[in-house]
Amino acid sequence: MGKFSVVGLKVVLALILAGTLFVQLFMIPMILIHEAPENGTDKFYQASFLGYLFVAGLIIETCVYCVWKLATRVKRGTVFDPASLGFVTPIIIAFAIGSVATLALGVIFAASTEIAPGAVLLVGGAGLLMIGISIIVLVLRQLLEQAAMTQAQAAELRDELGGVI
Questions:
Q1: Do 70 and 144 meet the contact criterion of CB atoms below 8 Å apart?
Q2: Chunked in runs of 10, what are the mean pLDDT values of the chain (165 residues)?
Q3: Structural domain boundaries in the chain
Q4: pTM for this one?
Q5: How far is CA 62 from CA 56, 69, 92, 155, in A?
Q6: CB count, 10 Å around CB of 125?
């Protein structure tokens, strides 16, 4: 990954973080203040959705932080260090939690007669997509672990070769 790629990635991550914080700190409270549902059922659906948005924001912020740290390690050339695995695991956990939260929101929405079945299906599909992303990142973590071991073995062999020469 070149210098411009890392800088471009960090710009995108900063924009994502800013947008997520804006939603969490301003949009959700504004909705709570200005949109007061009249009956208890609507309040429950609104609270579920806003709670989901807040949890989704925490998940996005966790992933942004971890990807930022990994991009920094790429820039320094230390990404194949076993310490990098500590930044991949939270991404896997965050996506797993996100998929559970998304599927739970789908179940809550499915109980409503006012929410279209297609919307419930889309929410369920998003939950399945997040499970898939979690599994893909798990596989990538295993590849990173193998690459880190290979690099450590190569460094050990270089040291042994240097001692022989």
A1: no
A2: 87 97 95 82 87 96 96 88 91 96 94 89 95 95 88 78 74
A3: 3-164
A4: 0.84
A5: 10, 11, 10, 32
A6: 12
